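Hi all, a correction to my earlier message: I attached the wrong file for DUF4942 domain-containing protein. Here's the right sequence:
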Amino acid sequence: MSELQIFNDPDVISGHTEIISSTNIERVVTGRNVALERIRAIIHQLAETSALTSSIGGKTALDWAMKQDFRCGCWLTEKEETAMKVITCNLDRSIWRDLMKKSGMISLMDAAARDEWYRNLERDDIPAISEDNILSTFAQLHHSKNEVFERGVINVFKSLSWDYKTNSPCKFGKKIIVNGLVNYTQWGFRLNWGKRRDQLTDLERMLNLLDGKPVPENRNDLGVRLDQHIDAQRTSAVFEDDYFSIRYFQKGSAHITFKRLDLIDRMNGIIARHYPGTLASR
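and the right structure:
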């Protein structure tokens, strides 16, 4: 945005103080019209700038120029040295999020890794958006992408309950049992949105990646589809898709049967690499 030029025409802002004098009326009307033109110019400049930042993944002025959780405040009214620091950070934060999403790296992360990434972005000392920083960040992420993915597999595996014989402490079996996935009341079943739901979505993400398929968007992931299934059929207790058969019970637990055992074998191979000697020989 180009620097705003301060309008300071003495013929408009005069020294006259007579109440309701012709000069004052002219001054008020002229000042009002000038102010509206300035506001219009600012709006146009912000719209053009917002279009530019939106096109590079940085969202619009409503995102990088407004105080968080305080939409009535606007950083454009603050002093330049204060406002530009915050606006730059907000803009860079949005661009980092967009770059991460477009790179596909975020899909390799389990819920815990994604939460850590987003928490780091909320800090005030995030790296500035520059060619060097982008290249170095994504070179490092690309180098560690297999490690990131495998860590997600291990985290889901470690989160399983060993209270059930079906859940082997050494590998993924044909079926696993999880607690607290659903809630049952007099109105029927409801999906619990929380840790268990995230783990289920992580499982789906891993199987899609191992199968060479794109990871479903958040609006259509396994958790969303299961929730929609339960809402549509409150008394039904079985959900099916290409990878899973999920039978849930009134006590809240769910039996998850894997349909693609070839993919489960690959996940078990990852576990074996991280915990040598724990996976029984076939």
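Sorry for the mix-up. The CA atoms of residues 209 and 215 lie 7 Å apart.
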